[in-house]
């Protein structure tokens, strides 16, 4: 993703086959300074994402050629830093969970207000840095090393590929090892203090993060000291340093 920070520099790929919604949203985005490329099928949307520098994807799920969930997964795999917002008539909780687990950053149910869509875009884009962050030392807990500046996660000598929100969630927790971090704090720091979406987003992202870390640990030939991500019901989460961690490991940013 191009970290511009300027609203009129944000490039939006809008994948929507409904002409009424498409024209209304596209006009609203353009009038607010966004650059918009609109396609009507999943295949053409993926082709445009490969061809153009894209910051944001607005994605309908009910596309004529392919299910939007499959498009979301491919977009996330091929463009890990792109912001993906799903716009759909599918309103069941399981649909929201599947969409977020497929890699979407947000989920907006039709019919929706253009004002709310624009507010959510602003909220997400505020979380994107306008320029390169200042350097910081990696944090090491047990065999887990998180380099926030480089946005890299390693488990022993293995690189662990994380989605953007998974990495940001882990980055918050590793700064507070052994401490309870509330849901409200995590939502504010990883998403936005004015987040409009369901907090189930946090649980889905946490579940996916756990799976990726445990899969990386399971693939290692030697036992690894992996921190645990503990759920604190009614409050939030805590990153537990592994019991085998010695005094020589810990937060090496201190």
Q: How far is it from the N-terminal to the C-terminal residue, by CA?
A: 30 Å
Write down the overall mean pLDDT.
83
Let me know the number of strands. Answer: 12
Shape: elongated
Helix content: 25-40%
Instruction: Give the uncertain stretches in residue-range form.
Output: 1-8, 245-254
Cα-atom radius of gyration: 19 Å
Characterize the structure shown:
Helices cover 37% and strands 20% of the residues. It is built from eight helices and twelve strands. It has helices spanning 19-31, 42-51, 68-78, 93-101, 114-126, 164-174, 183-191, 200-218, and strands at residues 11-15, 35-39, 56-60, 83-88, 106-109, 139-141, 144-147, 152-155, 158-159, 180-182, 228-232, 236-240. The two termini are 30 Å apart. Residues 1-8 and 245-254 have low confidence and may be disordered.
Gist of the model:
By secondary structure, the protein is α/β, with parallel strands linked by helices.
Quick tags:
single chain, four-stranded antiparallel sheet, 37% helix, alpha/beta, 254 residues, five-stranded parallel sheet
């Amino acid at each position: 993703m191009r970290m511009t920070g300027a609203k009129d520099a944000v490039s939006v790929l809008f994948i929507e086959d409904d002409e009424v919604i498409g024209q209304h949203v596209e006009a609203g985005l353009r009038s607010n300074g966004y650059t918009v490329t609109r396609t009507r099928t999943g295949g053409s949307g993926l082709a445009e994402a490969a061809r153009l520098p894209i910051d944001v994807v607005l994605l309908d799920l009910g596309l004529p050629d392919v299910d939007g969930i499959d498009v979301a997964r491919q977009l996330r795999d091929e463009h890990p830093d792109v912001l993906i917002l799903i716009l759909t008539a599918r309103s069941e909780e399981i649909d929201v969970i599947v969409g977020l687990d497929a890699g979407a950053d947000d989920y907006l149910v039709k019919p929706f207000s253009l004002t709310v869509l624009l507010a959510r875009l602003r909220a997400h884009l505020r979380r994107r840095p306008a320029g390169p962050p200042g350097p910081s030392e990696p944090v090491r807990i047990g065999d887990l090393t998180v380099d926030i500046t480089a946005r890299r996660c390693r488990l022993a000598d293995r690189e662990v590929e994380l989605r953007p929100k998974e990495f940001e969630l882990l980055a918050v927790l590793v700064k507070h090892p052994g401490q309870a971090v509330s849901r409200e704090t995590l939502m504010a720091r990883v998403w936005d203090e004015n987040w409009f979406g369901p907090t189930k987003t946090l649980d889905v992202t946490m579940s996916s993060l756990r799976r990726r870390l445990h899969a990386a640990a399971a693939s290692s030939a030697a036992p690894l000291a992996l921190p645990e991500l503990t759920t604190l019901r009614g409050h939030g989460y805590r990153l537990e340093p592994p019991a085998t961690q010695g005094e020589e490991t810990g937060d090496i940013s201190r």
